[in-house]
Amino acid sequence: MSAEVYVGRAPAEGAANAGWLLGHFMPPGDPRHSDEIEIKWGVHPAGEERAQWVRGEARTTFAVLVSGRFRLRFPDRDVLLAEPGDYVTWGRGVDHSWVAEQESVMLIVRWPSVPGYKAESPRAL
Question: N or C: less crowded end of the chain, CB within 10 Å?
Fold first, then answer.
């Protein structure tokens, strides 16, 4: 198999790396290493919420619901993702938080991939 091709399983690999499948945090030389984009397969139990708000976000984010019911919180509104395929996107500088209203699977794409950024672990309600 070519070194430029990587085949994996998002649920298993994501579980081993806080959900992250692609980004600057993967080893250099690995096809999953990128300074331009990050991709996450987020599995969230019902009631899990972000430990604290993200303030001054440095990336753009696209979040799509694969399954479950997931609420994104923004300073001026909440967005409920309730049907598979519902999505939301927001740009740099947008403060946000979230809560999994039901067990949820989310596919998250962020860009660019910013070294040194690490969120606190989510907490259960």
Answer: N
> What would the pLDDT profile of 36-82 be if each residue is shown by its tens digit?
999 999 999 999 999 899 998 899 999 999 999 999 999 999 999 99
* CA-derived radius of gyration, the chain: 15
Q: Count up the domains in the chain and report the number.
A: 1
Cα 48 to Cα 55: distance, rounded to the nearest angstrom: 19
DSSP string, 62-98: EEEEEES-EEEEETTEEEEE-STT-EEEE-TT--BEE
Domain interval for residue 41: 10-115
Give the H or E element holding residue 13. helix 10-16
Q: What CATH number corresponds to the domain at position 104?
A: 2.60.120.10
Q: What is the pLDDT of residues 94-120, one digit of tens each?
A: 999 999 999 999 999 999 998 866 555
